[in-house]
Amino acid sequence: MLIEQPPFLYRILFPGAHWRLQPSEKAVYLTFDDGPIPEMTPWVLDLLDAYRIKATFFCVGDNVRKYPEVYQQIIDRGHRTGNHTCHHLQGLQVSTEQYLRDVDEAAQLIRSRLFRPPHGHLRFPQFFALRKRFKIIMWDVVTRDYSRLVDARQVFDNVKRYTRPGSVIIFHDSLKADAKIREALPKSIEWLIEQGYTFKTIEE
């Protein structure tokens, strides 16, 4: 549970970051990290279109540079995008200066005030510098679709177990998640609809 749904004590380390939105409303916020890539993102977009759902995509700047037509598909289909650094840097492993440069590089390609740090890890100076310029979006439920230690059934189970009104849910439009998300995402959407949830994008 420490991974799938971060505890309160972890959340308070980052004051002003957004982990859960509008808990009084029976809505969820589907988000997708690490794309866009041609192998996965178009499939996700087609699935969302089939259910008439809008989501928020936190994009790696280098992927946007390599696949601008896939990124444009996200925009054209009415979804939100956010900055996920340019090279998927983990903040704890690099200096604040290098991290902020990488975010700025991504910002040249991704015109958004939304930011999510890869892995959810940031040094405090990085966090406070970025908080002045971005709305920092963390998560309330991470499905762990990227992990070799879980299968598609467990990804779906994480959605069912941890989702609550206002949950920001993370899936990944990445190769690591490919086999699992193709099974778990449709099941998760169907279950959320059956439970009476609506789907919203994260506003800047």
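[next item in queue]
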Amino acid sequence: MERLAKVIAQSGYCSRRKAEELIKAGKVTADGKKITQLPALVKKDADIMIEGQLLSFEEKEYYLLNKPRGVITSVSDEKGRKTVTELIASEKRLYPVGRLDYDTTGLLLITNDGELANLIMHPATKIEKHYVVKITGKLTNEDQKKLHHGVIIDEYLTKPAKIKKVKYDKKTDTTVFSLIIHEGKNQQIKKMMNAIGKKVLKLKREAIAFLTTDNLPSGHYRALTPKEVKKLHNLTKNNIN
């Protein structure tokens, strides 16, 4: 027996979190029986239908995109703006792992492996995300201490952040630095900077764990190698245990 949400995520249909939402909304059946309660267990060979469509298992695809500014991190946009999945030439139903804001650039993973996506995004796995941040004003030692110990955003205390390579430009009164976190809440870095009285001018994600945007121009992407995919799976499983 397997958790229904996990089976749906493994199929590539959507992430586990989205699968749980579909189940609770009464849109999923297993062997003809509607499932609405979580957790739900099903046989590995169960016929699962989502909104009347039989679930099929797709071959997994994994891409690393260097997201440019002005592209939406979504599979669709009601305003007709370009989305990150439109930049990938694939016939599969792909979706981004986590989110980068419209004006944020850098590394974004895109896949149809919902189970791996869920693990990468889960705070318990402690997968490090590396950013280069440019802010207004000077990032003082006191500011760095606050970020290291955690700041309050949306009534939530952030986990300790690592600060490196701080460079203050007196002429423009701006600071550029490297920030490492393993969370991914909505607009987290911008809110963290607001909490210490700063404003983000530029934000770029340079790495997720061992993956980087090195030698990958903005707007370009590449497929992950089988070795990289295996390493990601091992990293998430080892960290969450």
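[queue empty]
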